[in-house]
Design brief:
The structure holds two protein chains of two kinds. Chain A is an alpha/beta fold. Chain A is 36% helix and 14% strand. Chain A has helices at residues 2-10, 46-49, 53-64, 78-86, 116-126, 168-184, 189-196, 277-280, 289-303, 321-334, 351-360, 374-379, 386-398, 417-436, 471-484, 497-508, 514-522, 536-545, 550-554, 575-586, 603-607, and strands spanning 36-42, 68-74, 105-109, 142-146, 162-164, 202-203, 208-212, 218-223, 231-232, 260-263, 265-266, 285-286, 307-311, 338-340, 365-370, 403-410, 447-454, 490-494, 569-570. The longest helix of chain A is centred in the last third of the chain and has 20 residues, at 417-436. By secondary structure, chain B is an alpha+beta fold. Chain B starts with a strand and ends in a 7-residue tail after the last strand. Classes of the chains: A alpha/beta, B alpha+beta.
């Protein structure tokens, strides 16, 4: 039995409880009564994967069906991977401790581009052929993927049998129902894929043929096997009624987000032009306050967590956020639960809201102005003004805060040195503001942390057409920022430029990148998102060996009429809208958020009605 | 405030819960049970949980001691049952009662384990020779650094048997807030003295005792 083999080596590794399951809330079933076994794989370590809300939702949802069994699987850390390889322990699922190669579905959630090599490594550890074309024609071992990255799945196309576009709550079960039916009929993998691609939201990459022009751009995408020419993503229409778990798996070891999280809304109404999540999760839908309160209570009671957070792209945009917080604060303080609120926006951060947060915690404040000057913030449609930032900081300082964390992006379209210096100037104005206040916190100086990411152009955003800054440009801007800030009061951190370049290539790439990813993995690349594992030199070798120029994908401006590698995928927001928004951006003109005025992104036509009443 | 003491077992997959994680795990278990947990007064109000003896990662036990406080008087059996209804797999409360002895009265703990080897007879000989030797010197990490200690005078063998090709032993070792020896020290000494490779398995704490060999409750 695999369990004995695992246990023989478990004490040789860091945090062994990550590899043996048995957590409260994990679901054990009698496998003799199961029709479909689904291995839900997160292509990173347990500590990270277990924090992922989507997995918690789909895990519970699938296991509600008596005859389906969804289990969890994560990438082992280096120490345990070595043991697994040396002792022939195949990658296994945490509930049954059975090898995932024997499962019906092996499903990955693709949350970030730098986890792609981990998928290959996990398939290899599992003993599953890495390229889809090398798998048997039997109906078993269907390798699937969902999550935000699959909005452009082409760089992964060769490794997956199918992709699930959009929200999984309904389509996952439809897919498993079809599988159950066809398995009973003795159908083959090919026959299953031919039927599966008729389900809305299912994209079977092998049924689409790409051809390229001499200049390297896409010439056309042909659909075969009666697969739809355009694949539409799935959405949940009645978001208030959508399934939400009343229980989570509660890990023993500490994970990144070790708390109850309750999803309060989906989609975003803001339209920041760099933000992929802001467009691919449209339309904006809210849960009713009663639903949110009930789900919070059920989860806290069933898991025993003493911390809860509200999850969404922009929680303070919920139309009933104030009453929700009042009620939650009443419940959580009674039950000695900590309430934490991430992703608050600067512009609707009111004194009332701050007062409420202050009652529950007094840690740092985090804002994301993203751009250092008003001009640049208008370009990216981050509708936050200098006055608002100053006003919010004033409220925060007067309320006892003395440290502020600011998130910025570097390398944004139209950005000049002036915008970079603007970041330092903004920080300085905040410092000056602090010392100008009579009732500032006494005995402490002000501390500003600036965290600077590098802009990565992403598919399905108005900036999908934009080139990324080259490494030289990014490094110049990083140095300029460091030279401009007040070093006593401001701490600057920024991302490695190479990481962002690779992200851009993988995000906007096409099918020709599959072999690059494979080659890079063969050279030892994995855990690319972990600084200590990232080997850009190996990636450069892989690009060279495959004859692929990364700057073609990262640093080239894409013409509006060019066929994009993701053009046959429909995420409800139209290309015309992205073109319009891109032009508006270059005029430094903002677009109001959806509640103020519909900007005609195209979503309402797809859902057959208005997004807001 | 009602002071209570639970005896619990930690077996199977639960043996990989580290001591640090166990505290968090117990807090969540109590919260799930809905029992009226007593919280400390003060700025950082938190519940009171105290484990009498830390258990090494990978060891099983059927005698772990947990002290905790409740706000209301609730029948012992009910407390036990409500906790067991929401315990993680591999953990179970055996009994709940009033604490009888102070934690400082803990003097010894008993462990059972199996030794496995391809040359089991040779290994048995080596174990016997080691136990008969004048001293058993091992290096022990203490707060002052690595110290050499002689564990020979402290080892009390309570049972040995050769069964199913495995050498099964039970031994009592000093335990408590002052000195704490664990069977890993014995394994290390055996490894240093014997040329025969062996594996350890099924290491389990089977009892916690006071100075006069009474079961600690």
């Amino acid at each position: 039995m695999l369990k004995e083999k695992i246990e023989r080596h478990l004490l040789e590794v860091q945090k062994p409880s990550r590899y043996i399951g048995g957590e409260v809330g994990s679901i054990i079933k009698d496998k003799s009564k199961i029709d479909v076994r689904f291995a839900f794989c997160f292509p990173d370590t347990y500590d990270i994967g277990m924090s992922h809300l989507g997995m918690k939702i789909l895990y519970s949802l699938t296991n509600e069906c008596e005859n389906y069994w969804c289990e969890r699987c994560f990438a082992p850390s280096e120490d345990f991977e070595k043991i697994m390889r040396e002792n022939d322990i195949p990658l296994y699922a945490l509930e049954s401790l059975d090898p995932i190669k024997d499962f019906d579905f092996i499903g990955f959630t693709m949350q970030y581009e730098l986890s792609y090599t981990n998928v290959l490594n996990m398939l290899d550890l599992a003993g599953i052929p890495i390229y889809a074309r090398d798998r048997t024609n039997e109906l078993t071992q269907i390798v699937v993927a969902g999550g935000p990255c699959v909005c452009n799945p082409e760089p992964l196309a060769d490794f997956f049998d199918l992709f699930i576009m959009g929200e999984g709550e309904e389509v996952n079960l439809e897919l498993m129902d079809l599988y159950t039916e066809m398995k009973k009929q003795g159908a083959s993998r090919k026959e299953f894929l031919q039927r599966a691609c008729q389900i809305e939201g299912i994209y079977v990459p092998e049924f689409y043929r790409f051809s390229y022009k001499p200049d390297g751009t896409v010439e056309k995408v042909e659909n075969t096997n009666n697969a739809p020419a355009v694949v539409k993503k799935r959405i949940i229409k009645d978001f208030d009624k959508v399934y939400y778990p009343d229980d989570f798996v509660v890990p023993f070891t500490e994970i990144v987000h070790d708390r109850v999280s309750v999803e309060v809304l989906r989609g975003c109404l803001r339209g920041c032009r760099f933000c992929q999540a802001g467009f691919i999760y449209r339309p904006f839908r809210e849960k009713k306050s009663g639903t949110i309160i009930d789900e919070t209570k059920a989860l806290c009671e069933n898991t025993g967590y003493d911390e809860v957070s509200l999850a969404s792209l922009s929680t303070s945009d919920h139309s009933e956020i104030s009453p929700i917080l009042s009620e939650l604060i009443e419940y959580t303080s009674e039950e000695k639960i900590t309430l934490s609120l991430p992703s608050l926006r600067v512009d609707n951060f009111s004194e009332e809201l701050l007062e409420k947060i202050k009652r529950v915690r007094k840690s740092g404040l985090t804002f994301a102005p993203e751009g250092g000057t008003q001009r640049l913030r208008d370009v990216i449609n981050k509708n936050v003004s200098d006055d608002e930032i100053m006003n919010t900081c004033r409220i925060a300082f007067e309320g006892g805060y003395s440290s502020v964390k600011l998130y910025f992006m570097m390398g944004l379209p139209t950005e000049t040195d002036e915008d970079i210096v603007g970041i330092a100037e903004l920080a300085q104005r905040i410092i000056d503001l602090f010392y100008s206040l009579e009732n500032r916190p006494k005995g402490r100086g002000v501390q500003i942390s600036i965290s600077c990411a590098t802009f990565v152009p992403k598919p399905f955003t108005p900036f999908q057409f934009e080139p990324q800054d080259t490494r030289e440009m990014i490094e110049h801007k990083q140095k300029l920022l460091l030279d401009s800030v007040n070093k006593k009061r401001v701490k600057v951190s920024y991302h490695d430029a190479d990481v962002s370049i690779l992200e851009a290539v993988l995000a906007k790439g096409d099918r020709r990148l599959c072999d690059v990813i494979y080659t890079a993995w063969k050279k030892g690349c994995k855990f690319d998102s972990w600084g200590e594992h990232f080997r850009f030199d190996k990636w450069v070798e892989a690009f060279e060996e495959c004859g692929i120029d990364p700057s073609f994908y990262a640093n080239r401006r894409i013409e509006y009429d060019e066929i994009l590698p993701w053009e046959h995928l429909d995420y409800y927001v139209s290309k015309e809208f992205f073109v319009r928004e891109n032009k508006t951006a270059h005029e430094s003109v903002t677009t109001p958020h959806c509640r103020l005025k519909c900007s005609g992104c195209g979503v309402n036509r797809k859902i057959g009605g208005k997004c807001f009443d | 405030m009602i002071k209570l003491r639970a005896v619990f077992e930690k077996k199977d997959r639960a043996k990989y819960i580290s001591h640090l994680d166990l505290n968090r795990c117990m807090l969540r278990t109590f919260r799930r049970s809905g029992l009226p947990i007593w919280y400390t007064e003060g700025f950082h109000s938190h519940p009171y949980f105290s484990f009498a003896l830390a258990l090494s990662l990978g060891y099983e036990s059927n005698c772990e001691i947990l002290d905790f406080n409740l706000n209301e008087e609730i029948p012992f059996d009910e407390v036990r049952d409500r906790l067991n209804a929401v315990m993680p797999y591999g953990m179970r409360i055996i009994s709940v009662g009033e604490p009888k002895l102070k934690i400082t009265k803990i003097a010894k703990a008993e462990y059972s384990f199996s030794l496995k080897s391809d040359n089991i007879d040779g290994l048995v000989n080596d174990v016997e020779r080691l136990l008969q030797s004048e001293s058993i010197l091992v290096e022990k990490k203490t707060k002052k650094g690595i110290q050499q200690v002689d564990i020979k005078p402290f080892i009390e063998i309570t049972s040995v048997s050769l069964w199913d090709g495995k050498y099964n032993m039970s031994m009592r070792l000093p335990a408590g807030t002052q000195v704490n020896y664990n069977p890993a020290l014995f394994f290390e000494a055996l490894r240093n003295s014997s040329g025969i490779p062996f594996e350890t398995a099924e290491i389990r704490r089977t009892g916690i005792f006071s100075e006069n060999n009474e079961i600690f409750l």
